[in-house]
Amino acid sequence: MAKMHVKMTVNGGEVEALAEPRTLLIHFLREQLSLTGPHVGCDTSHCGACTVDLDGKSVKSCTVFVAQANGASVTTIEGIANADGTLHVLQEMFREHHGLQCGFCTPGMITRAYRLLQENPNPTETEIRYGISGNLCRCTGYQNIVKAIRAAADQLSGKKEAAE
């Protein structure tokens, strides 16, 4: 199959490459850009391990062709950390509140939670559970994931209030 020229912004930087249009975004990110944070989990879009932010929306990158992402802005777990390399408050809260065990779902879970907190800066526990319901975790039971997201929301809203 003929390759197409693909250009997009990934984690704040412009990337260009040749790819088959039917290449899944997850494979493009992992194999051509060496961004291995998003994981290939189920290959059926059920688990959410491949979740990335695409033009301001959480998507499962195993359901998006690279041709569909051409010209888009993509953020992976690698792009969520602060510019100085320190952890984003959400990543720090996952660490502090033990929101992970094996870590396989964690990149997709944090990436989804990142968008959730932009959509709803002060979610209730129910809203958090609903907001991450497309991301499966087989280890944690979700209790500490929800605590971590809630703690991040509290810290982020405190930072916004302090800045004003």
UniProtKB/TrEMBL annotation:
Protein name (Swiss-Prot/TrEMBL): (2Fe-2S)-binding protein
Domain 2Fe-2S ferredoxin-type: 4-80
Entries under Pfam families matching the protein: Fer2, Fer2_2
PANTHER family attached to this UniProt entry: OXIDOREDUCTASE WITH IRON-SULFUR SUBUNIT (PTHR44379:SF5)
Record's keyword annotation contains Iron: yes
Source species, domain of life: Bacteria
Keywords of the record: 2Fe-2S, Iron, Iron-sulfur, Metal-binding, Oxidoreductase
Organism of this sequence: Dongia sedimenti
InterPro entries xrefs: 2Fe-2S-bd, 2Fe-2S-bd_dom_sf, 2Fe-2S_ferredoxin-like_sf, 2Fe-2S_ferredoxin-type, Beta-grasp_dom_sf, Diverse_Oxidoreductases
